[in-house]
């Protein structure tokens, strides 16, 4: 490791902590809008469905740009960014097809993004504060398969993804709190 990388690597916990707090706030507001407003306003629903994976891609890009990520994290984060951008495009299309199509696409995205999040958390486990993200990634894979099954089964509502986003947001908050120790060290 070069000496120029050390100061940047030392800021990684602080960068992640701030990012996780922002992701928590975004997830909660997004879930509330989806659950309360979007079912009655189709254009808003479409915007929200596209926005969520784009914010995910932007957040992961921010993580990727933060110094101190391992080669393994860079690969999983890059895959997550690509998958999230493709999911945003697919969700935009699916939002005009049917709720079932939305859930099927969301499910595939949740599986793939969850797997990359799990692998990134595992590669960063020595950093601290990563177990909630590993749990979230693993849970996302499982819930993603459930969303896919609901979509393939002809579901008529997409509001169940609001709960998914809320839980993910809470797990980001827990990670941010746990990273506080690393920031203070």
Largest sheet: none
Low-confidence segments, ≥5 residues, pLDDT <50?
1-8
Mean pLDDT, to the nearest integer, reads: 87
Q: Would you list the SSEs in sequence order as H and E?
A: HHHHHHH
Distance between the termini: 20 Å
**Fraction in helix:** over 70%
- Strand percent estimate: under 5%
Number of strands: 0
Structural class of the secondary elements?
Answer: mainly alpha
What is the molecular shape? globular
Alpha carbon gyration radius: 17 Å
The tally of helices reads: 7
| Structural domain tally | 1
Structural overview:
The protein has 185 residues and is mainly alpha-helical. It has one domain. Helix 6 packs antiparallel against helix 7. The two termini are 20 Å apart. The N terminus is likely disordered.
Describe how the helices and strands are arranged:
Elements: H1 5-10, H2 12-36, H3 42-65, H4 71-94, H5 99-123, H6 131-152, H7 160-184
Helix pairs in contact: 2-3, 2-7, 3-4, 4-5, 5-6, 6-7
Can you describe this structure in just a few lines?
The protein is 82% helix and 0% strand. With 185 residues, it is mostly helical. The relative contact order is 0.16.
Main features:
mainly alpha, disordered N terminus, 185 residues
């Amino acid at each position: 490791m070069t000496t120029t990388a050390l100061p940047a690597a030392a800021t990684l916990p602080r960068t992640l902590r701030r990012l996780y707090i922002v992701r928590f706030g975004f997830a909660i507001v997004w879930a509330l809008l989806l659950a309360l407003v979007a079912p009655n306003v189709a254009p808003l629903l479409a915007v929200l469905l596209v926005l969520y994976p784009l914010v995910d891609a932007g957040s992961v890009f921010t993580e990727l740009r933060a110094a101190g990520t391992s080669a393994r994290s860079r690969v999983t984060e890059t895959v997550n960014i690509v998958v999230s951008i493709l999911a945003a495009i697919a969700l935009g299309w699916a939002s005009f097809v049917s709720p079932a199509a939305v859930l099927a696409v969301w499910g595939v995205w949740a599986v793939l993004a969850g797997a990359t999040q799990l692998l990134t958390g595992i590669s960063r486990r020595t950093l601290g504060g990563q177990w909630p993200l590993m749990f979230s990634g693993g849970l996302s894979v499982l819930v993603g398969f459930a969303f896919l099954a609901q979509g393939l089964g002809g579901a008529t509502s997409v509001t169940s993804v609001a709960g998914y986003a809320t839980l993910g947001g809470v797990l980001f908050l827990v990670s941010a709190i746990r990273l506080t120790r690393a920031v203070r060290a």
